[in-house]
Amino acid sequence: MDNTAIFNASSSPNDMNLSDLLAFDQKHIWHPYTSLTKPLPIYPVKAAKGVHLILEDDRELIDGMSSWWCAIHGYNHPKLNAALQDQMTRMSHVMFGGITHRPAIQLCQKLVELTPDKLNKVFLCDSGSVSVEVAIKMAYQYWISLHQPQKTKLITIRKGYHGDTFGAMAVCDPVGGMHHVFKEVLQEHFFIDAPLSKFGEELHPHDKEQLEEIFEFYHTEAAAFILEPIVQGAGGMRMYSAAYLKEVRRLCDKYHVLLIADEIATGFGRTGELFACNHASISPDIICIGKALTGGTMTMAATLCTTPVAETICNGELGVFMHGPTFMGNPLACSVALASIELLETTDWQSKVKQIEQQLKNELMPLQKHAMVKEVRVLGAIGVVECHQAVHVANIQGYFVEQGVWIRPFRNLIYMMPPFIIQKVALQQLCRVVKGSLEVEEHFKKPA
Fold first, then answer.
1. Buried residues in 201-215 as b, exposed as e (16+ CB within 10 A)
2. SS3 state of residue 105
3. What total number of domains does the chain contain?
4. Which of 37, 116, 212, 426 has its CA 20 to 30 A from that of 293?
5. Catalytic residues, which ones?
6. pTM
7. Shared-domain flag, residues 269 and 374
């Protein structure tokens, strides 16, 4: 595909060098999970508003991805913009070492109030991957402080994804995951099969047996069990039973293993509950949140833990928690996070997510009968069409853009996580285009 074809160089004087800029981009700029020698087509966006991305040639695309699941209120929201502008007049950033400020304190108060019970100590981070690194380090330092330094392993489930930094990569799926090529340089942990227990069902006997077995054999070495509650995100968009999550919590208590819940993708309403742990009425020892925390306006995340975890770490040999990002507690990010949370609290987001869920079920579930489709899954504002074959990303992406939508598939998954503000007609268009994409042979790779 000729990447320059998506531009109209005469549309405005500012567009005259757009082709040159695009050529530089593809030669010098690495985009996520793409090649500089065989680059994928890219689509330059000049603005975004509501649920639409506006390309440089003025075409508008309905965004089905919430910019990787974070823009839950849509784009260019006036309340989020106002929070940024107001804070900017005071200060954009100050170091968090030895200094504090109202936006950080008020945000942490709100996070303690909203997250599952007993999570009342807050560490502010830069990104989701960093929040996972912080959680893992908390778990290690907790056991070191209890004079059990042998507890250096993590237990987790296959098909998971927790981020791209080295600690996070080590608990992503070690075989089918994106980071399997790094296997020889990553710390080895304990993996069990992804849950067979489907959402809404009871605990599958195989899952119960596997969980009991891994805890029994490895609890003396395990610092924590880390998982994405209810929905496994970028590892496969799988959804599993709340009963499974309850059983993990029970076994962590029984065998003295910490539970880390990675709610970076699931937090702030995406699954129909404010946090996915609420589906099982459980609370982890440590939770990671990010993505939708700021409504998709700025990078920010947080790691929360219980008082026993925090006090054990701080009463240990080191006396402090050993981590401190430069941009920790950034005032702009804290302010806009507060505004994003306020938007959730003052709107009926639950009804919106239920409406999205019902429409996704109505329009995507019939695709289960399609010859190209292996399974359709829907939960909250998440719709997943798993195909028998891997998609050809460049071809199918081009089709989506031609049809006026933005959907970013991976492997054999065509999925959507639209902004909560999406209207019925726009969601209908997204679903219609997904259905149409299944009819084109060139959209799928042939099996090897």
1. eebbeebbebbeebb
2. helix
3. 2
4. 426
5. 33, 161, 262, 291
6. 0.94
7. no
